[in-house]
Design goal:
The chain is built from twelve helices and no strands. It is an all-alpha fold and 298 residues long.
Length: 298
């Protein structure tokens, strides 16, 4: 019964997502002619470019494309499903790299600073600064320092199996993952360490590492995992700004290209892909969180 409800919810979401995708693309394509403003095309050609089908016609075309084997074709003649599949692997590698590096440093710094309030306050301030700063600022800073000055990592691009291409874009994305998780660990750890349970553990003289990583971390881990899954879903949906700065061939850069070139079919497919990935990851995180709450209540 639960699976049936979840399936119905997914179908409703896909219906709404497809309607929104068609609507957004139609708004974007209100005036395509400006792309050819300097090409000297005739007024008749401009009027032809600006003509639009009805919403029903566009929606029917979208369904036909999605249900076909190729998913339709881009403006350049490439099959859409192949186009997306070729970019999922780079996006997946980049997302996993960003999650791993962000989570690792968040756990280490967040846990180790529990016994040092001044350090914890400094780390919290840095995390808030990161979250309030546009992500392209960090991307450009890393590019200048680690490529232009130190020449340690490539400035962009991608080669499968070569992790050096993931470092600069991965750290640019991972620093925001770090900031969110570090603030959660810091604030939650402070509350837990002041609870009667952990005060009792302290009086028993447990070693600091045991108290932090065997007791505190295991208590924080379920909620921490939910936050990680949400971040992963967000990154898999496409990191448009960072991928464009580092000309990384992922979903985000493809989405940027589709918006800029007004590639109608590709843009609709990518919007549906991004929305579907984000929905699935959020539902997984929510289901896991509900299971934790039910186990704690029982």
């Amino acid at each position: 019964m639960l699976l049936v409800k979840e399936f119905i919810r997914l179908l409703v979401f896909l219906l709404l997502l497809s309607v929104v995708s068609v609507s957004l693309v139609r708004l974007r394509l209100v005036d395509r002619a400006f792309l050819y403003a300097d090409s000297g095309i005739s007024q008749e050609s401009i009027e032809t470019l600006n003509q639009q089908n009805s919403f029903i016609s566009d929606y029917r075309l979208l369904l036909n494309s999605l249900l076909s084997k190729s998913g339709g074709k881009t403006e350049s003649g490439e099959e859409i499903y192949i186009h997306i599949l070729e970019r999922i692997i780079p996006s997946l590698e980049l997302a996993i790299f960003a999650i791993l590096i962000g989570t690792f440093f968040a756990v280490i710094f967040g846990m180790e600073s529990v016994y040092y309030p001044r350090l914890q306050s400094m780390l919290d301030s840095f995390s808030r600064l990161v979250l309030s700063t546009p992500i392209f600022i960090f991307a450009i800073f890393l590019l200048i320092v680690f490529f232009y000055k130190l020449e340690l990592f490539p400035p962009g691009g991608y080669q499968q199996g070569d992790w050096t291409y993931l470092v600069l874009p991965g750290v640019s994305l991972g620093i925001r993952v770090y900031a969110r998780l570090q603030l959660f660990i810091s604030q939650t750890a402070k509350e837990e360490m002041a609870s009667p349970f952990f005060l009792l553990l302290k009086t028993r003289g447990l070693p600091k590492r045991t108290l932090l990583y065997k007791n505190l971390f295991l208590k924080l881990f379920p909620t921490l995992l939910v936050l990680i899954v949400l971040d992963l879903g967000s990154l898999l949906s496409g990191a448009m700004v960072v991928e464009e700065i580092f000309f990384f061939p992922g979903i985000g850069r493809s989405l940027y290209y589709a918006i800029r070139s007004m590639d109608k079919e590709l843009l609709q497919a990518l919007l549906i892909y991004s929305g579907l990935v984000f929905y699935v990851m959020n539902r997984l995180a929510l289901g896991y969180q509900n299971r934790i709450l039910n186990s704690e209540a029982s």
